[in-house]
Amino acid sequence: MRKITLSFIFFMFFVLSLFAQEYEIENYTKTFTDSDRRNRRVTAKIYYPNQQTSVNENYPVIVFGHGFVMNYSAYENFFDTLVSKGYIVAFVTTEGSVFANHRAYAEDLAFMVNQVKTEAMDSNSPIYNLVGDTNALLGHSMGGGAAIVAASMVEVNTLVTFAPAKLRFNTTTPATQVTEEAIVFSGSADGVTKPSENHIPLYESLGSNCKYFISITGGAHCYYAMPNGYCDFGERFSSRDITVTRSEQQEIMFTYVIPWLDYKLKNDSSSYDEFVNTLNNASEVTYDNYCSNELDIEIEKLPKSSFRVKVGPNPTKSSINISSSDEYEIEKVEVYNQFGKLFLNSKGKRVVDLSSLHRGIYLIKVYSKGKTITKKVVVE
Fold it and tell me: Is the distance from CB of 261 to CB of 136 less than 8 angstroms?
């Protein structure tokens, strides 16, 4: 079977989306008061589906954190894409100066998660009775680090960050207290918040039961957003080897963000299958994931055709057992180290002996009927 490219998958997703409901976008700005922080004033620009086209509907809420000295106009791509697909996005506009208080901004994001729910109960509010039961924290750069800290303070359904930055205080400790399923997006060419110093340590620190690290090959720091003078100026002198355009990076990003949010916030289990299949077949990204509960999802919630694999025990000192969905036969198993070197190649076996390998982390690639799933295994 020919490998399905990410561009083809995105094209098909776009075509199908034409048949889905699209919403007109409205917005308003409001300043809220946090009485628990000496009446701190927190301003947000709230984007929502037009009520004339969304009567008697409720929408998940996304609270979004901006990057360093970046304002709302830089993130119009997020508002236009997500709100048109039935989400409310609250963009927190505080701490936009070069003297930004990172801790205060994280607290502002956490405050806004609950404040939007309160706002939806006000009969004079444009979003009166429009807010659903699910919500998420999203953030870019400084806002990504702040979103991680905020997720340790308040309950949300998921956390998604884009090139998250370590803040001016300990950010990894709050990350360990985050339990929500999460995605950390990274760009391999990001020189502003270097992956090895920011994205990867924050991802590894997350206490999430299920988390994904998606690295866009040749991806930049600022390309998640629209052109922005401050961000682009900084990247011009720090990032090297950028090999994608801004539009390409955003296309790749939304290919994963949209099905993930539909899965987590709209309870659409088929979107998770779309997310995983796209990830497994993509050539534009590399990824890592840790999902201790990944295989505990009820079978009836998954499409009957989905290819699922379980590998254990993990960690192991000798061999691993591989099980798959009943209708899928395992054709081949390959074992790689973290640098992509092939160590073992086993055809048709469900028990693979790893006793000859040195201690470390290995990637197990399982092939079946043109599908591939990669699992991470620790050899002790």
Answer: yes
Burial annotation 163-172 (CB, 10 A radius, 16+ → b, else e) = bbbbbeeebe
**Out of 10-24, 79-93, 254-268, least confident range:** 10-24
Q: Is 56 left (phi over 0), alpha (psi -120 to 50) or beta?
A: left
Question: Do residues 239 and 186 make contact, with C-beta atoms less than 8 angstroms apart?
Answer: no
Rounded to two decimals, the pTM is 0.74
**Which residue in this structure is represented by tokens 């699992």?**
375
Given a contact cutoff of 8 angstroms between Cβ atoms, the answer to whether 333 and 352 are in contact is yes
Residue 10, H or E segment: helix 6-17
Residue 17 pLDDT: 45
What torsion, rounded to 10 degrees, do the Cα atoms 351, 357, 358, 361 define? -50
End-to-end CA distance of the chain: 36
**Is pLDDT above 60 for 201?**
yes
Percent helix, strand and coil across the chain, each rounded to 5? 30, 30, 40
Tell me which residue has tokens 């296309």.
251
Q: Which two tokens stand for residue 100?
A: 């930004």
Model confidence at 357, pLDDT cuts 50, 70, 90, reads confident
Using DSSP's 3-state secondary structure scheme, residue 11 falls into helix
